[in-house]
Amino acid sequence: MSGWASPAGALLGLMGGIGLLLIVAGVRGRRVTLAERLAPALRPRDATSGLLREQPVRSPFPVVERLLAPWLADVARWAERLGSPRAEVRRRLDRAGSAENVDQFRARQVVWTVGGLAAGLALALLIGIARGFAPVPLALLVAICGACGFAACDQLLSRQIAQREERMVAEFPTVAELLALAVTAGESPVSALERVAGAARGELSAEIRRMLADVRAGAPIGLALTDLADRTGLPSLMRFAEGVAVALERGTPLAEVLRLQAQDVREAGRRALMEAGGRKEVAMLVPVVFLILPVTVVYAVFPSLATLRVGL
């Protein structure tokens, strides 16, 4: 018992000292600044109706949420220093069509990082029990698992952006031709956009409805189209926004511009499909060269070798 008591006591003392240091650092780091003291008195009163305000999402455990909110905010600010800037994250969330704000995404990154650290710690304990404890490699393994969790959350957002942009590119030719038909029938551009947004379903039609909401709120249609292109980040939609804006300003035929853009997007999709087919064709050569061809050679050469061995 005495052999185990000494390391256990040292470990408990180390954990207690680290906990006290974290508490002191947190208390000293959260001192109320002068701006925070004056903010309640100087903050303007929000006259927006309570029905129109964005209601905060509450967890099933509000007490735990209030206790952990300051720590999560600090960790989120630390993660922001290591990751992308706040404006870039906001732009990527808009491109993914996510309803999260930047703080919620940072909190999700923190949760993924903590999950990676927990998985790395469990793996390090299993390796230590099986092969003996080596502090430096095991600590490095835990850190790598935490970094993988942080990167996996960011990679998941990038994948969501890529999938959404693929769906928008696939929807764009149909939407452009519907707009061209509506404009040719004599409707104004805004009416044509409203008709298409009401009839179509998909990611691009949702963005058009958001753009129309900005137009109804008083924004010029050219500016709303520019905002649409900035939110999506797709070159085809950027050309679409520029073409529609120029056609509205100069009075050029809008239907022909929309048809040409739809044709260009279809040609780009056809080229991308041919490029993907070429890459798949090269990838298919790997099993043929390294698996099927050696087996064929063995079947062709083995009878001859057997015959020569019998002859000798």
UniProtKB/TrEMBL annotation:
<keyword id="KW-1003">Cell membrane</keyword>
<dbReference type="InterPro" id="IPR018076">
    <property type="entry name" value="T2SS_GspF_dom"/>
</dbReference>
<feature type="domain" description="Type II secretion system protein GspF">
    <location>
        <begin position="177"/>
        <end position="301"/>
    </location>
</feature>
<dbReference type="GO" id="GO:0005886">
    <property type="term" value="C:plasma membrane"/>
</dbReference>
<feature type="transmembrane region" description="Helical">
    <location>
        <begin position="282"/>
        <end position="302"/>
    </location>
</feature>
<keyword id="KW-0812">Transmembrane</keyword>
<protein>
    <submittedName>
        <fullName>Type II secretion system F family protein</fullName>
    </submittedName>
</protein>
<keyword id="KW-1133">Transmembrane helix</keyword>
<keyword id="KW-0472">Membrane</keyword>
<feature type="transmembrane region" description="Helical">
    <location>
        <begin position="110"/>
        <end position="130"/>
    </location>
</feature>
<feature type="transmembrane region" description="Helical">
    <location>
        <begin position="136"/>
        <end position="157"/>
    </location>
</feature>
<feature type="transmembrane region" description="Helical">
    <location>
        <begin position="6"/>
        <end position="27"/>
    </location>
</feature>
<dbReference type="Pfam" id="PF00482">
    <property type="entry name" value="T2SSF"/>
</dbReference>
